[in-house]
Design brief:
Largest sheet: 6 strands, mixed
Strand content: 25-35%
Radius of gyration: 24 Å
CATH superfamily of the largest domain: P-loop containing nucleotide triphosphate hydrolases
Structural class: alpha+beta
CATH topology of the largest domain: Rossmann fold
Distance between the termini: 34 Å
CATH architecture of the largest domain: 3-Layer(aba) Sandwich
Strand order of the largest sheet: 6-7-8-3-9-10
Number of strands: 20
Number of domains: 2
CATH class of the largest domain: Alpha Beta
Order of helices and strands: EEEHEEEHHHEHEHEEHHEEEEEEEEEE
Helix content: 25-40%
Number of helices: 8
Shape: globular
Amino acid sequence: MLEITNLHKTYEGQPLLKGISFSLAAGDTVCLLGASGSGKSTILRIIAGLEQAEAGNVRWDGQNLANMPTHQRNFGLMFQDYALFPHLDVFENVAFGLRMKHWPQNEIAPRVDETLAQVNLTGFAKRRVTELSGGEQQRVALARALAPRPRLLMLDEPLGALDRALRESLLDELRAILHHTNIPAIYVTHDQEEAFTIADRIILLRNGQIAQAGTPPEVFAKPADGWVARFLGLGNVVEGHCTGQSVATPLGRIIAPCPCPQEENITLLLRPRAEVVETGETLAGVVTDVVFRLPEQYRGEQAFRIELEGGLYFYVPAPVKVGEMVKLKIAQVECL
């Protein structure tokens, strides 16, 4: 359906996008994940026709969209600030796109009611948007984007203005709505948890390039490099020197699987699950901090987050004391 090929874009004389390519199939939700300035929103604006790339193509079912005006692309776009019309009620906000597309008058009301039902706002048609909560306004903005039955939906940090608790409660609901409508979607965020929750496929951007792409389980299980692992918060990333059965690091000796030849520099990912042992440790260190984690904060299990000298952190099932020298057996150590 949607095919992006080799997009290039500069901003103030500096390269912003450097050869971005990806595709989107029917019903898929692709998440563009990256820090501010990585080019996420610019990609959306190019796809929508609000900006032009200096090189590359945007195609829909094989048709090049370069010369197609924004209003003819039939793509829905939802922004972080919702951009609702404060002087209009919910009904008129949702109906706005239908009127702009000259829908027959007798078809507008049924379509607005249908769309409000999709986003769980039945009965809200006559409410003023200024009277709604942040989560309700988010649903109105989504309904307005969905009402004209766009062939592609693009969401630019749609939950960014909400507090954490509300954002988490709406994530699963939003994913269900996207799958129910079967509209392909591109979801932009800087939040790793959002991306892993809502996406069928993640495209991780770094400095205008794709650092890694794959399904959430693929990206979680095998990060492409140390930068990806750090950005996603997958654990401790440590540079070291392979010495056979262990790796020498600035933070001490680490027992690790080491498929490389001896005397080679490597990058290790130390996943954070560990246990305190008497022998057979992966590494040892002095505890500098201990914080209790509730079960819902860490994989449904009670845990203690401990930090060692040098900044390494791990989750262990039983408490230890600050200042104590501990030996840790790490559940998973990977060579990147």
